[in-house]
Amino acid sequence: MSTDEHAAKLTLGWEEWVSLPGLGLPAMKAKVDTGARTSALHATEIETFGPAAAPKVRFTVHPVPGQEGLRIPCSAEIIDRREVTSSNGESEMRYVISTDLVVDGHSWPIEVTLTDRSGMTVHMLLGRQALGENVAVAPSERFCQPELDYAVYASKHIRKAAPNRVLRIAVLSREDNFSTRRLVEEGEKRGHTVEVIDTTRCYMDINALAPEVHYDGKRLPRYDAVIPRIGASITPYGTAVLRQFETLGTFCVNGSAGITASRDKLHAHQVLARQKIGMPETAFAASPKDTKNLIDIVGGAPLIVKLLESTQGKGVVLAETKKAAESVITAFRGLKANFLVQQFVKEANGEDIRCLVVGSKVVAAMKRSGAEGDFRSNLHLGGSAVSVRISKEERATAVKAAKAFGLNVAGVDLLRSETGPKVLEVNSSPGLEGIERTSKKNIAGLIYDEIEDHVRPAPLRVRKQATARK
Question: Where are the transmembrane segments (predicted)?
């Protein structure tokens, strides 16, 4: 028993309301069965993870019988694995965990086995081991202690009240670079299991009843979240793998549709235009007969010519004169390349602002300047960066741009023009090295804050609280 020593024993009926706060279960009905030695909790999707020396188990609990839509994801350390024989004589090996049981302010640790109790009217069983010497049982009584209410699961505070549970997270990445290492490091520091998955080595079983993702000859386990770090060269296949995870119901930090749209420069600018987000004047045409009109639309030379799938400044050319612009456009057409023609914002002076958006906030910003003689400010091309204070308008523009693509994590590149901020690009896999070193902020940690908030249980919609207690 806990803390306050009570002279009188705690009396339980054959059915009582209990709480398991360590698992994020504030209200459950439990059947008290002195004929059973071991306690049991109804759990599904039971899966082990973690190191062999300290294994853990994740599982899902449906605390309200008959309402399978309410799923509380839980995790705990495994303290034992034992054979349990049910009342019908069937034996089963079950994982055993330890958690605190709370009844009317009384709290004490109990051992609980995890098993699928589907079809049972009560989703928890309290056996003899959980009762102890300070608990008396009145087998003919019911609800001797104060009743709780399933309506607690309808509270908007249930996400914040849920304990920080261990997550299993996949980072889809082909590269062992700074960003991938930081995501693994930060996740493991928080106690999560983080696995790096080579996107191109994934393959998919696509079917209506049980879609799966396979890797190296094995079905991948159920992940709580996927962090996509999909390179531009494998965007089509990488987003197909991501769609498979979305089909499985896995939380993906950035969705496949947003990544696909942001990678195609033409599509991306059309998305920005549809949302009335400021950007440099942009033109696109397929016919060589339209070259002169393309140049006129963006205000003439100097202008920028961009390949539609350019990344890290590659495939971006500054044409300083009309003749140079015509030559570059003719050359790109000769290569059968798809490209945009874009206004050159002179007043930006070769500088842009990278805003790192996580969730619905700009969490860091840096001003990037190109190397001497280079109009491109990409750090990969020798540019430099310093931390910068951005305006309210710039902040709002960056957040709006990320939301336009449905991205939870995005690098939004802005130009400072005489008519306000102009969005150059929305990057769905922004690098972490430059922004973390420049801002001195733990960006990887902020990404995990976003993940942890999303994968906590959502509130249950309870129509009639009176009927929820039945």
Answer: none
- Domain 347-442 fold: D-amino Acid Aminotransferase; Chain A, domain 1 (3.30.470)
Q: Quote the CA–CA distance of 235 and 383 in Å, as a whole number.
A: 26
Backbone angles phi, psi at 274, to 5 degrees: -65, -30
pLDDT at 8: 55
Rounded Cα distance, 342 and 371, in Å: 21
pLDDT in tens, 93-113: 999 999 999 999 999 999 999
Query: Is the CA virtual torsion 164, 21, 94, 115 positive or negative?
Result: negative
pLDDT reported for residue 5: 45
Q: Please give the structure tokens belonging to residue 117.
A: 């109790």
Q: Output phi, psi for 156, to 5 deg.
A: -70, -10
Task: Dump pLDDT digits (tens) for 321-374.
Answer: 999 988 888 888 887 888 889 999 888 888 899 999 999 999 999 999 866 655
Helices 235-247/256-263 angle, 10° precision: 160
**What dotted CATH number matches 10-163?**
2.40.70.10
Three-point CA angle 274, 275, 279, nearest 5°: 85
Q: HEC states along the chain?
A: CCCCCCCCCEEEECEEEEEEHHHCEEEEEEEECCCCCCEEEECEEEEEECCCCCCEEEEEECCCCCCCCCCEEEEEECCEEEEEECCCCCEEEEEEEEEEEEECCEEEEEEEEEECCCCCCCCEEECHHHHCCCEEEECCCCCCCCCCCHHHHHCCCHHHHCCCCCCEEEEECCCCCHHHHHHHHHHHHCCCEEEEECHHHEEEECCCCCCEEEECCEECCCCCEEEECCCHHHHHHHHHHHHHHHHCCCEECECHHHHHHHHCHHHHHHHHHHCCCCCCCEECCCCHHHHHHHHHHCCCCCEEEEECCCCCCCCEEEECCHHHHHHHHHHHHHCCCCEEEEECCHHHCCEEEEEEEECCEEEEEEEEECCCCCCCCCHHHCCEEEECCCCHHHHHHHHHHHHHCCECEEEEEEEEECCEEEEEEEECCCCCHHHHHHHCCCHHHHHHHHHHHHHCCCCCCCCCHHHHCC
What is the value of pTM for the model shown?
Answer: 0.76
Return the CATH architecture of domain 281-344.
Answer: 2-Layer Sandwich (3.30)
Residue with tokens 């400021």: 278
